[in-house]
Design a protein that fits this description.
- This protein has 276 residues and is α/β, with parallel strands linked by helices.
- It has a domain of 182 residues: TIM Barrel (Alpha-Beta Barrel), CATH 3.20.20.
- The chain contains ten helices and ten strands.
- Strands 8-7-6-5-4-3-10-9 form an eight-stranded parallel sheet.
- The radius of gyration is 17 Å and the shape is globular.
- Bound molecules: 9-methylguanine.
- The site of 9-methylguanine (9MG) has 13 residues, from β7 and β9.
- The site of 9-methylguanine has 13 residues, from β7 and β9.
Length: 276
């Protein structure tokens, strides 16, 4: 990994060893916490707990990216996320990340104190590249084949590792051409986004091909269907599978692990760090 220190607005994030990003979904239709945190007081309490449990980043999302989820308008997404970002920054000392593909949400989230942009569309949306560059925030560029509504209908690749690497390389070039600094770029293979179980497994075994690009790699596999497919467990019973994947990701030099279960993941990473 080449970037050890990333500037996230007024805070610095050290990526010397893998850090945990806690997921805070503020959608009524969120796939695993079912809108539990759509009220800002509850969301604040959850963010506080994730921080106390060892998360260094809280990733706030107002639009579900699960297959078949309803599209959300700009104003609805802003109404969902802005009060929560503001509240978290009034009360807590933590880096927040905005999980969005919309340019206006990126800009307003940055104004409200967000320190990072997490875009599952890798800044391919209207005005997203320009907006991200204007905020000066680090960006996580994720690979997705297709779009959330249809991405899981028979995705096909000749060589999934090569195609993901090639896509991310092109998005990195676009970002650099737009003036986003190299030190502000994080990449992500996008587990479960337009990929079958076989694609996810192949990609997971080759995370090193992405780390070789010289950018921090974010891995998000927490509670995902690939765990359900292997273990035959429902979402609420995928903790052990999520920890196994977080551990493997850390061993394979992932820099950021995006998870629902922060305390358990932090412990697993401490053990991995001490022994691996
Ligand atoms: C929003 N979101 C859901 N899954 C994700 C993943 O795997 N990576 C990133 N960066 N964001 C994700």
């Amino acid at each position: 990994m080449t970037n050890n220190l990333i500037r996230c607005a007024d805070r610095e994030l050290s990526l010397g060893s893998p850090v945990v990003m806690g997921i805070l979904n503020v959608t009524p239709d969120s796939f695993s916490d079912g809108g539990l945190f759509s009220n800002s007081e509850k969301a604040l309490r959850q963010a506080e707990k994730m921080l106390a449990d060892g998360a260094l980043i809280i990733d706030i999302g107002g639009e579900s990216t699960r297959p078949g989820a309803k599209l959300v308008s700009e104003s609805e997404e802003l109404d969902r996320v802005l009060p929560i970002i503001e509240k978290i920054h009034q009360e807590l000392d933590v880096i927040t990340s905005i999980d969005t593909s919309k340019a206006i949400v990126m800009k307003e989230a940055a104004r409200a104190g967000c320190g990072m942009i997490n875009d599952v569309m890798a800044l391919r949306g209207d005005g997203a590249l320009e907006a991200a560059q204007q905020t000066g925030l680090p960006v996580c560029l994720m690979h997705m084949k297709g779009e959330p509504r249809t991405m899981q209908s028979e995705p096909q690749y000749d060589d999934v590792v090569f195609e993901v690497k090639d896509f991310l390389t092109q998005r990195i070039e676009q970002c650099l051409a737009q003036g986003i600094k190299k030190e502000q770029i994080i990449i992500d293979p996008g587990f479960g986004f337009g990929k079958t179980l076989a694609h996810n497994i192949t990609l997971f075994k080759h995370i090193d091909v992405l780390t070789e690009l010289g950018f921090p790699v974010l891995v998000g596999a927490s509670r995902k269907s690939m765990i359900g497919q292997i273990t035959d467990r429902n979402i609420e019973d995928r903790l052990a599978g999520s920890l196994a994947l977080a551990t493997l990701a850390a061993i394979n030099a992932a820099a950021i692990i995006r998870v629902h279960d922060v305390a358990e993941t932090v412990d697993a990473l401490k053990i991995t760090h001490a022994l691996a």
